[in-house]
Design a protein that fits this description.
Elements (H helix, E strand, L loop, with lengths): L9 E4 L4 H12 L5 E2 L11 H11 L3 E4 L7 H6 L1 H21 L4 E5 L28 H21 L3 E6 L1 E3 L12 H14 L4 E5 L5 E2 L1 E3 H14 L9 E4 L5 E2 H12 L4 E5 L8 E2 L4 H5 L8 H15 L1 H6 L1
Parallel strand pairs: 1-2, 1-3, 3-4, 4-5, 5-10, 6-9, 7-12, 8-13
Antiparallel strand pairs: 8-11
Length: about 325
């Protein structure tokens, strides 16, 4: 029996973003047509009174919180207060208001950066809060941990049906390609695309290229969120969040070579070792979600090809404005 129905009014916060739009597409495919998707212009999630008024007016029965202030290493390092304050406010406003408004089920989207920098690999859910965070994104991670724990506390104390998913590095349609504030994969796509267009002799990437990462196509995440909303209800002794990933990692050097191939760049790739590498390895244990019947279906090579094509077709005008 599904924990949500097609008669539910589903509020998706962050529905214009990469993750939120993928979740909306997955819900569309499954027949969930009653979706409330307020834009930033319609609703400022930093405004607690505005959030309360929106819930009172629209009365959603199920909530997906995919909205967040996000960015890569440079952005986290440059704007630590913004990352902490804005994400804490967004999460608290939406989660608390959903609980107080009688929402029946809530899904909070976190991030794999919540785990300790030197966590045992592959990383199990139980690794949370067992060691120090990676300094290059600790502000964002602390905010996300607070969101997970708020959901957990409301579940424990009041029986509020709030659960969380922790996705690995995401990519796909709707990503952010800003030259300074994007994550590693979209930043590479933009850089290698521009180099290919200019017939450049080389591209320089940050770090040594040695860290290992896994990458999940955002449409796979959308299907994972749909499955969790429909089927997953943790027991009293279970963690209140699940990892979402491919279970397969590769080095950043190998990623750069794959992006070069996908964009048609044929020059040399140099590495600036004076720049930070971040966490040495971050591979998720996805066995709990797999036991529910989910697995990633889009291989990286296929996902990169389609993402580069989407970038070139739809985002070149936007890129020029950045």
């Amino acid at each position: 029996m599904s924990l949500i129905t097609t008669s539910d009014r589903l509020a998706i916060f962050g529905a214009r973003g990469m993750a939120g739009s993928a979740i909306s597409r997955a819900l569309d495919r499954a027949g969930y047509q009653q979706q409330l998707k307020p834009s930033r212009q319609e609703l400022d999630l930093l405004d607690s009174v505005g959030v309360q008024n929106w819930f009172a007016e629209h009365q959603p029965t199920v909530v997906v919180l995919a909205a967040a202030k996000v960015g890569g290493i440079h952005a986290n390092h440059t704007y630590p207060a913004d990352f902490l304050l804005e994400n804490l406010k967004i999460q608290t406003n939406v989660i608390e208001t959903a609980w107080r408004s009688g929402v029946r089920r809530l899904l909070f989207l976190g991030s794999s950066c919540i785990y300790p920098k030197l966590a045992e690999q592959p990383i199990k859910e139980e690794s949370l809060l067992t060691g120090e965070l990676e300094p290059t994104n600790e502000w964002y991670a602390i905010a996300k941990i607070a969101g997970i724990k708020l959901c957990e506390a409301l579940r424990k104390q009041y029986g509020f049906d709030a659960v969380s998913l922790m996705p690995t590095n995401l990519y796909g349609p709707g990503d952010n390609y800003h030259p300074e504030n994007s994550h590693v994969l979209p930043a590479m796509i933009r850089r290698f695309h521009e180099a290919a267009e200019a017939n450049a002799e080389s591209v320089t990437c940050w770090g040594t290229g040695s860290p290992l990462r896994e990458f999940l196509h955002v449409d796979d995440l959308g299907e994972a969120c749909l499955l969790a909303l429909k089927q997953w209800k943790p027991g009293p002794e279970d963690p209140s969040f699940l990892n979402v990933g491919t279970g397969i990692d590769l080095s950043i050097r190998e990623l750069a070579e794959a992006v070069a191939e996908a964009t048609g760049f044929r020059g040399a790739i140099h590495w600036d070792s004076s720049k930070p590498d971040g966490t040495p390895r971050k591979q998720l244990d996805v066995s709990r979600l797999a036991r529910l019947g989910w697995r990633a279906r889009i291989p990286l090579a296929e996902g990169l090809t389609s993402t580069v094509a989407f970038f070139r077709e739809h985002l070149r005008a936007q890129m020029a404005r950045l």
